[in-house]
Design brief:
Blueprint: H1 2-29, H2 36-67
Helix pairs in contact: 1-2
Length: 69
C-alpha cells in the first residue's frame, strides 16, 4: 500500500510536469497560427499529461518497491 501511495504521488507530479512542459513547448514551436493556445492546452492535458502520469507512476512504483521492502 505504501508503494502504491508513493507511485500515485509520483504519477501526479509527473502529470503536472509533463503537461506544463508540453504546453510551453507546443505553444513555442507550433506552426498553427489560428488556435495555438487551444492546441497546446488540449494536447498537453489529453496526450502528454497522461503519458507523463503513466511513466512516472511505473517508475515511482518500482523505486518504492525496491527502496521500502
Amino acid at each position: 500500500m505504501k508503494s502504491f501511495g508513493i507511485a500515485l504521488i509520483a504519477g501526479i507530479a509527473g502529470y503536472v510536469i509533463a503537461a506544463s512542459l508540453s504546453y510551453f513547448l507546443i505553444g513555442k514551436f507550433s506552426s498553427n497560427g489560428h488556435d495555438r493556445s487551444v492546441e497546446a492546452s488540449m494536447t498537453s492535458i489529453f496526450v502528454f499529461g497522461p503519458i507523463g502520469f503513466i511513466l512516472s507512476f511505473i517508475s515511482g512504483y518500482i523505486w518504492a518497491k525496491n527502496t521500502f521492502p
